[in-house]
C-alpha cells in the first residue's frame, strides 16, 4: 500500500493518526493546526476508531474536521448539478414533441 490510501480511512504511524483525504494525501492535526502529508512509507490501517475518538485525539471538534476535509471531499459549487426548473409533465411533452418532429423529418426526407 505504498503511497495509495483509501479515502476516509484512518491510518497510524509512530503513534499518530492520519485521515486519508485523497489516495495520496493524509491529514492530521497538531495544536489545532491541520498538517498535510504525502507519505511514501507504509502506514497501518486503523479500522476501530470512531470520528469522535479521532477528533478527541487531535484536540479538535467535528466542525473543524468538516471544514478541513471539505476542501478535499466536497465538490466545488460549480460542479454541483441542480435539478432543472419546470414541471416533469412539461419536459416530457417537450421531449415528445421533439421526437415527433424528428420522426416527421425522417419520414418526409
Q: Could you report the average pLDDT, rounded to the nearest whole number?
A: 83
Helix and strand string, N-terminal first? EEEEEHHH
Count the DSSP helices.
3
Largest sheet: 5 strands, antiparallel
Q: Would you count the extended β strands for me? A: 5
Question: Which structural class do the helices and strands define?
Answer: alpha+beta
Question: Which residues sit in consecutive blocks of at least 5 with pLDDT less than 50?
Answer: none
Protein described:
The protein is an alpha+beta fold. The chain has helices at 51-58, 62-73, 88-108; strands at residues 10-13, 16-20, 26-30, 33-37, 44-46. It has a domain at 10-79. Helix content is 38%, strand content 20%. Strand 2 (16-20) and strand 3 form a beta hairpin. The radius of gyration is 24 Å and the shape is elongated. The relative contact order is 0.13. The mean pLDDT is 83.
Keywords summarizing the entry:
single chain; 109 residues; alpha+beta; 5-stranded antiparallel sheet; 38% helix
Provide a brief overview of the structure.
The protein has helices at residues 51-58, 62-73, 88-108, and strands at residues 10-13, 16-20, 26-30, 33-37, 44-46. It has 109 residues and is of the alpha+beta class.
Amino acid at each position: 500500500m505504498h503511497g495509495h490510501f483509501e479515502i476516509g480511512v484512518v491510518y497510524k504511524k509512530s503513534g499518530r493518526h492520519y485521515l486519508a483525504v485523497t489516495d495520496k494525501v493524509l491529514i492530521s492535526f497538531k495544536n489545532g493546526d491541520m498538517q498535510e502529508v504525502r507519505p511514501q512509507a507504509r502506514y497501518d490501517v486503523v479500522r476501530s476508531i470512531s470520528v469522535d475518538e479521532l477528533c478527541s485525539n487531535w484536540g479538535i471538534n467535528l466542525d473543524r474536521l468538516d471544514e478541513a476535509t471539505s476542501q478535499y471531499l466536497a465538490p466545488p459549487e460549480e460542479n454541483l448539478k441542480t435539478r432543472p426548473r419546470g414541471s416533469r409533465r412539461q419536459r416530457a411533452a417537450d421531449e415528445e414533441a421533439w421526437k415527433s418532429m424528428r420522426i416527421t423529418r425522417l419520414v418526409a426526407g
